Every structure is written in C-alpha cells, then in structure tokens.
C-alpha cells in the first residue's frame, strides 16, 4: 500500500472516466531532486535519462543536476530538443560510428574496439573509460559488473585503451578518467563500498581529473517510504574525494521513480478457483515495471462513488487487459476493491511507460498529465 498525495487523488477523481492515465507530480519531483542535490555538496549529479525521458521531468530536474547521462543518439537528440545547453555524457555498449561522432560533453568508452573506432573517425572527444571491476555486488537487483557482462571492459581492457590513446591521437581523444556503473538496487553503504573500489582502481591507473561512479541507488517497491540515504552517501563520498578530482554520479530510478502514478479503473472483480482477481483498464503494456522486476507494484484503491460489486479485505491479484498470465501488476494483496474503483499505482515514474510494450493487443495508450 502507498500513501496517495492529495493532489494526485484529486486528479485521479477528475480523470476517473478517462483512464488509464499517467500522472507526474512535478512539485514532488522538484522537492525530491532538491533534497538529493543538497545531500551531495561538491559531487557532480547527472540524471540517467533512460529512466524517464519525459520533457517536463527533464525540465524539472534541470536546475538540480549538472547534466544528463544518455544512452543513444535518440536520447541525445531528445534532450537537446528539450534542454539545448545541458551537458551530456553518452554511454551504452553498442554505440554506432554515427553515435561516436556526436558532439557531447563526455563519451563513455565501453571497449578497446570502440576506442579504435572512435580514433578512426578522427573526431575529438573527451572520454571516460568504463571499467567492469571484479568486485562483489551482492544484494544488487541488477549486476552490470563484477562478472562477465557486455558493459564496459575489464582492467586489462582499460590498459589496452590507455596504450591506444598514449600511442596516438592523444590530443584529439582526451582521457578524462574512469567510469563505472556496476550494479543497481544498492543501499548507501554498499554504494560507498563500490565507490571505494572504483576510486582505488582509477587512482592506480593514473591521475585523472574525473571519476564517474554510475547510478543504481536502491528504490524499495516493497516499502515506498524507505528511501536511499543520500545524506550518508554524500558524507561518504566527500570523505573519499581528493582535491583536483571531480566525482560524478548518474542516478536514474532513485530520482524519478517516486513522482509517477499510473491510474487505472477496475473493470471486473471475479473469483477463479477460489482466488480473487481485479481486472483493470491497461496493464503491463503500460507499466511493465512489476513484470520486468518481479515485484508487486504498490497501489492505493479509490472508491469513486459509482462502484459495483467486489471483495472486502481479502487477497486480490490485480491484472491488466492482456491475454497473458504475465500481465500481473500486483499479486495477492489484501485489500477491498470494487468494480468502478480507481487504482493508483505509485512509484511509476522510472522504467515504467518507456520500457513497456505499448502496442501489444492494441488497446488505447494512456493519456499523460503533469501536476504543476
Ligand atoms: C541505467 C544506467 C544508469 C542509471 O541507473 P539507475 O539504476 O536508474 O540509477 C546510470 N548509468 C548507466 C551507465 C546506466 O546504464
């Protein structure tokens, strides 16, 4: 269960006959991002755009961040169209030659082969070398490092890259430092352990003006009130910082998850082989997050005053309109729910709409609304 802010409740009741819809709470995002910024004095803060590229979200974040981490030419063009002057750091394991020649503030190089192609283009670039360190990432929801993955390169690859830029093109391809994004879903103490490992590796390979520590700060879908401890993280990073170094982080999920709401309406409540199901308009083709991550999406039920039959205080599985058993938004949550109620799924501001298979079954797309 999740506490629904009054402004979201009000909008949900106004939209009740026009659901499904996404509602983004921009004042909440603004306050959250300001808090994160305050907790990280001296640290460069980039937002990982792939978590949610909604233009209004980008504009709301802009005053609180130093730049944006992007993963494709499409994201570069998109952020440029919304915020023409924002610094961009371009990463991603499969950059084409065309993407390598985009004019960005920083380029995260993911392999020696990619560096050779970059040198081959003849373009100038400020690069960070992305390392996949062999460090334990226990407790992570997703591991991009600490083992064989296509993300970044192992320490031998970094040495190979350093040889490459040393041998030639030193002035055109300027190595600014080391970058790592090793895991996601880690709490502040584990994130600080990772930072320590990345910094010590980086400092062993050279004297770099910049070290990128990635994103991956934990978000708890089980307990929406539990938040990443930005103060502890900020304190830990300032203790590790050395003069002359810029430390940069690039969270996505932990910045925008909380500001998004996916609102649906209950079409049917039924019991099948003894279990109660609530079927809602929309589903995981709009909000794939719970299917992708295997969790129950937290929600609140809003009676509309025009509600029909349902169930009271018992475990209910909330499903969408898709003809697949995978279209489950939340499983066996004890609640009361009736036909016609609005269900407001929270924590739908990151890796939600954009990671979903929108046109599977050809239901109408949700509408999008912004609280200002
Ligand atoms: C996705 C991604 C991020 C953001 O990760 P979150 O878990 O959303 O914080 C940061 N850096 C890189 C390189 C990424 O691929």
Describe the overall structure.
By secondary structure, the protein is of the alpha/beta class. The chain has two domains: 6-22 and 258-371, Lyase, Ornithine Decarboxylase, Chain A, domain 1 (Beta Barrel); 87-251, Alanine racemase (TIM Barrel, Alpha-Beta Barrel), CATH 3.20.20.10. Helix content is 28%, strand content 26%. Strands 1, 12, 13, 14, 15, 16, 17 and 18 form an eight-stranded mixed beta sheet that branches. Helix 8 runs parallel beside helix 9. The longest helix is centred in the middle third of the chain and has 18 residues, at 188-205. It is elongated, with a radius of gyration of 22 Å. The model has no long low-confidence stretch (mean pLDDT 95). The structure holds pyridoxal-5'-phosphate. Pyridoxal-5'-phosphate is lined by residues 48, 50-51, 69, 91, 181, 184, 214-217, 250-254.
Short overview:
The protein is of the alpha/beta class. 28% of the residues lie in helices and 26% in strands. The strands form 3 sheets. Strands 1, 12, 13, 14, 15, 16, 17 and 18 form an 8-stranded mixed sheet that branches.
Strand content: 25-35%
Question: What is the string of SSEs from the N terminus onward?
Answer: HEHEHEHEHEHEEHEEHEHEHEEHEEEEE
User: Under the CATH scheme, which class of the largest domain?
Assistant: Alpha Beta
Helix percentage range: 25-40%
CATH architectural type of the largest domain = Alpha-Beta Barrel
Main β-sheet description: 8 strands, mixed
**Compute the gyration radius: what is it?**
22 Å
Oligomerization state of this entry? single chain
How many angstroms separate the termini? 25 Å
Segments where pLDDT lies below 50 for 5+ residues? none
Write out the distinct hetero groups bound to the structure.
Answer: pyridoxal-5'-phosphate
Number of helices: 11
Total beta strand runs: 18
Summarize model confidence as the mean pLDDT: 95
Morphology call: elongated
Tell me the structural class: alpha/beta
Fold-level CATH name of the largest domain? TIM Barrel
Keywords: Pyridoxal phosphate
Family: Belongs to the Orn/Lys/Arg decarboxylase class-II family.
Protein name: Type III PLP-dependent enzyme
InterPro entries: Ala_racemase/Decarboxylase_C, De-COase2_C, De-COase2_N, Orn/DAP/Arg_de-COase, Orn_de-COase, PLP-binding_barrel
